[in-house]
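Record now logged underneath.
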Amino acid sequence: MTTEELVKQICKEQGISVAKLAAALGQSRQNFYKKLQRDTLTAQEWQEAAKVLGVEFDQGFVLPDGTRMGVSEKREKRTVLPLMGSAFLPGKAEETVKHFEDLKLQEIARGELYFFRAQAESCIQSVEKYQTSEDPILRLSADMLSTFANFTLGNGREAQMARKDVAQILRKYMEKEEDPEIIASCLFAYYVTSVLIHIPPEEGTPPLDRYLSYLPVGQRLFAISMLGHVAYLKGEYARAQGMVQTAMAMTEKIYPIPMIYLYCVAAMCQINQKDQEGARQSVTEGWEMARKDKFLEPFIEYHGLLQGVLEASIRKSEPEVYKKLVDGVIAFSRGWMKIHNPQMQKAVTDLLTPLEYSIAMLACRDWTNQEIGEHLGLSVNTVKHYVSGILEKLHIDKREKIKEFVNQ
């Protein structure tokens, strides 16, 4: 294999054009091509190219100056949202990020770390340059993170642009009939940016479960949490809970991020079956896993659907952390309203506190004041006071009408 053939092969595998590689090395496209064709790249240039491409070299290829180099078979395979897909002990997220040898994957993983710690601005700064990457794995990862980070920051236009880019990438690779692993990654990103914000996939989109086996274990677990979420939205609570329990039972290692989401989905289903104790247990297990890495984001996203379980679990025991969650919930919910109900003059999240919102979620689902009080650790009179205040703030006269205002 010639130098030119080797470089073209690596560029193709890494999703970068030879012209972009030349630019990254500070060389003109024409000059770089000449060096490839004439086999005059120096060892230093090879090493610099390796860093840009995120590959390692062994000693299997002879350069003109006598240096033996070649592409190592130990290159790190790129996967979407690499930190989410990683198995590690709770509390070791930072260390896990540093262990990615592919520097581009490491930057994406760093963006994930910021995102799951509810640091949206830092997340965007880490990944935005990859939203134009020619590598679909890097681009899809950046688009997913950008969608939700911009959602939280209230940048509806940017969030929608990232979602649209994911859809375009999916269409492109479906038309090309790429290998199923690439299609699985595209579908994964598409469903993440649809299901989790309750936007139905376009008609004709292949079902995600058909491609589950092509996803790495961690991403597959998260995909199952999404499928459980879909079942939940259909009111199939027992089925969704069964999916979550099966996924957990079949997992040998600890994948903290997808497992936290699985615990949240389990709690959502349990609370809708009025299994308050089971819901609290699920949230507690998820929270104990999350708190060691300061992963607040899953609970911010699922706050409304958890219907007061967070308040019952940590509002009194960890008031400072709960305050941070509240700030995140308000920001996320405002972003939600910009996507789902931009016509509403004043967002519900500007009118109701997170505790009031949780009570509203329960009240519109036919929970009695006594049941709500027992669930949240409040007296019946206190619940009555809250419900009356909610109706007044929303300018409605019946608790059944609350459904029109809350995300279910």
